[in-house]
Specification:
The chain is α/β, with parallel strands linked by helices. The chain is built from twelve helices and ten strands. Helix 5 (115-121) crosses helix 6. The two termini are 26 Å apart. The model has no long low-confidence stretch (mean pLDDT 97). It binds ligand LHQ.
């Protein structure tokens, strides 16, 4: 399907989504938000896709909410309901990434600000280019971190550093993002696409069903006590144990050959 502000590429089992609103550093317009939701919903149910890459065109990854859209109503003296805006938009978008039943790699090509940081946090892997930077810019316009940032950021880098970034809105560079664990890999800008694709390609050959269940377990057990988590693990392991991937993994090990996982 052709989109206005999103490019979708398929290379075998890897799908790459490129946000394409570069004049505003891929700020999340209503169009881009709707297109991301449509594309991610399709990829979630497409068994032929076994890993997803999310990146941006131009020098931005994503500058967060499209503030241009607020200009007309604010100048007219209107105050749109931002809670409703979130519930209709980003609150539906973010779970499409976190709950994607296959791995999602953020290839952070440039600046990520506001909800753009949240988008990156909702992905499973964050590979950043040396040109990337990060700002929880919400506070600079009198807002609170949204789109899951209040949960996903402290879960990723701890609450003290999260609060510092959230309260100051300070922009940090790729090296600092790596140091504090906000991203897991920093590569030269011209190597970003190939590094992210090769990671996604490697992930796409692994047991997809077990990875989807692992993501689900990490989400569910985050708020559980140990005994509850042990029980959830047991029922998920029963599901994983019934997959073709599990059978192939065990047989390949016993036969001393590399496994070929069908992804189910
Ligand atoms: C933009 C944007 C942008 C429109 C750059 N929108 N045009 C918010 C509101 C409502 C409901 C609920 O949720 C939220 C969640 C949020 O995401 S709040 C946070 C929103 N984002 C921001 O506040 C970030 C605003 N942008 C910036 O602070 C800077 O642009 C950053 C730090 C991202 C990049 O700085 P520079 O590298 O110096 O680039 P620039 O500022 O020159 O931007 C380039 C162009 O992109 C420029 O347009 P122009 O026509 O002058 O070339 C900007 O106006 C436009 N742009 N972000 N979010």
């Amino acid at each position: 399907m052709a989109y206005e502000q999103l490019i979708v590429d398929r290379d075998g089992p890897v799908a790459t989504l490129r946000m394409n609103n570069p004049n505003v550093l891929n700020a999340l317009s209503r169009t881009l938000t709707a297109e991301l939701m449509d594309a991610l919903s399709g990829l979630a149910s497409d068994a032929a896709v076994r890993a997803v890459v999310l990146t941006g065109e131009g020098r931005g990854f994503c500058a967060g909410a499209d503030l241009g859209a607020l200009e007309a109503p604010y100048r007219r003296g209107e105050r749109p309901d931002l809670g409703g805006f979130l519930r209709d938009g980003y609150n539906r978008l973010i779970p499409l990434l976190t709950d994607m039943p296959k791995p999602v790699v953020a290839a952070i090509n440039g600046v990520a600000a506001g909800a753009g940081v949240s988008l990156a946090l909702a992905c499973d892997f964050r590979v950043a280019s040396e040109a990337s930077s990060f700002s929880l810019a919400f506070v600079k316009i009198g807002l609170i971190p949204d789109s899951g940032a209040t949960v996903l950021l402290p879960r990723t880098i701890g609450s003290a550093r999260s609060l510092q970034l959230a309260l100051t809105g300070d922009r940090i560079d790729a090296a600092e993002a790596l140091r504090i664990g906000l991203v897991t890999m920093v590569v030269p800008s011209d190597a970003l696409a190939s590094e992210a694709t090769s990671l996604a390609t490697r992930l796409a050959a692994l047991p997809t069903a077990a990875m989807g269940m692992t993501k689900r377990l990490f989400r569910e057990t985050a708020t559980m006590d140990l005994r509850g988590a042990l029980e959830r693990e047991a029922s998920a392991q029963a599901e994983a144990g019934a997959t073709e991937d599990h059978l192939e993994g065990v047989l390949a090990f016993l036969e001393k050959r590399p496994p070929t996982f069908p992804g189910r």
